[in-house]
Design a protein that fits this description.
- The protein is 38% helix and 23% strand.
- The protein contains 15 helices and 14 strands.
- It starts with a strand and ends in an 8-residue tail after the last helix.
- The radius of gyration is 20 Å and the shape is globular.
- The relative contact order is 0.17.
- Helix 14 packs across helix 15.
- With 373 residues, it is an alpha+beta fold.
- It has one domain.
């Protein structure tokens, strides 16, 4: 599928990942969240990050490519992996207004947390990568089939940092810290337990953040005690294909792909036929690039050509219904949906949505991105 969207700098990445983290903390349940609210927000998270990053990138900028070294930092069991190149996403006139809509209060606290230690997220973070991990599965389910009822996140922020001064500040503030094989994990968000959120400087160019147990696995990967993401037989080939192809990209395993398409067109997903097709989806790749407006490419792998054709028809119907609903209240959104292109190709399904800069501004004016993730 292809989608066209604009996004910006660090707010696109760390802020959006931070938003995900903040929402979990806001629930007061550590890494747990309900399947209907928290677990299903991962796709919305990525789209908002995309809308932030792509919008700020000039069309002449080069596509982002994440090094094998960084990819190899992540634990193997990820169900979704995403990347955003933020180096050129630093200025956009209307971004502050968009930021007001998408940033939760919890992440503002995180921003203040790192800013107080001398880390300016808006200028120092150049690249951002994050992975989602299923933390709890339904009884009797296997990871590659069922959608997890809770999930955890690990993110890597790349840029020029000063870990010595930041850590000195954290220590002066007597923040809760856990030492894992010589790495200091600093708690933020009020929970210093195993399911709490932590930040860790891996070196002067790399910050890792996420749930403590996932950060411990990341450190174990560095010591060779855990397998890394490159050994994930489902995601590794997709990462190899997507890496370097666009400024923002994501790859989703089967369970996460199903959630994503259900959220893309919830009305279509209500059809019994759609549920059957979605339940057999194998993967989803998302690539987003800037152009005259917003551009992103979503490609879903279905179980068969018949499934791809069936789902294409149902998705078109669902998008048409959404367009009808938005016609009066949000004409820019309706226009975007009206220009949507749904094209089956063999066992694959491509969807393209397009937005001009003016339409983007119109969407912001109507608080379209004021999500409740």
């Amino acid at each position: 599928m292809k989608v066209t969207v604009h996004v910006t700098a660090f707010a696109s990445g760390v802020r959006q990942c931070g938003r995900y983290l903040g929402r979990m903390r806001a629930s007061g349940k550590g890494g747990e969240h309900s399947k209907g609210e928290e677990i299903t927000m991962n796709f919305k998270m990525f789209l908002t990050v995309a809308v932030l990053v792509a919008c700020a990138l000039p069309s002449a900028a080069r596509a982002g490519s994440l090094s094998t070294e960084v990819l190899g930092m992540f634990p193997q069991s990820a169900g979704e992996f995403a990347y955003a190149d933020l180096r050129q996403a630093r200025s956009l006139g209307w971004f502050p207004r968009l930021q007001e809509q998408i940033l939760p209060e919890r992440f503002r606290q995180f921003e203040l947390f790192v800013a107080s230690a001398g880390v300016d997220a808006n200028s120092q973070v150049e690249e951002l990568a994050w992975a989602l991990f299923p933390a709890r599965l339904p009884a009797g389910a296997t990871q590659n089939i069922a959608v997890a009822t809770s999930e955890e996140i690990v993110g890597i922020a790349l840029g020029p940092f000063r870990p010595e001064s930041a850590e000195a500040y954290f220590q002066a503030q007597k923040l809760a810290v856990v030492i894992v094989r010589g790495y200091s994990l600093y708690a933020f968000g009020g929970d210093s337990g195993a399911g709490g959120l932590y930040l860790c400087f891996l070196d002067s160019n790399t910050i890792a953040f996420g749930q403590r147990n996932q950060l411990e696995k990341l450190i174990a990967v560095r010591y060779g005690d855990e397998q890394n993401l490159l050994s994930n037989s489902e995601l590794a080939p997709l990462i190899s294909q997507a890496n370097g192809s666009s400024w923002v990209w994501a790859v989703l395993s089967a369970p996460y792909a199903r959630l994503a398409l259900q959220q893309l067109a919830p009305q279509a997903a209500e059809f019994a036929q759609a549920q059957q097709v979605i339940s057999k989806l194998r993967e989803l790749t998302i690539e987003i690039n800037p152009g005259s407006g917003l551009q992103a490419h979503f490609e879903a792998l279905c179980a068969s050509p018949d499934d791809a054709n069936t789902f294409a028809a149902l998705l078109q119907a669902g998008l048409l219904y959404q367009r009808y609903q938005a016609a009066n209240s949000n004409p820019d959104l309706a226009s975007m949906l009206d220009q949507a292109k749904v094209a089956p190709s063999g066992d694959r399904l491509d969807v393209t949505l397009s937005l001009t800069d003016d339409q983007m501004m119109g969407l912001i004016e109507r608080n379209t991105f004021a999500t409740h993730l």
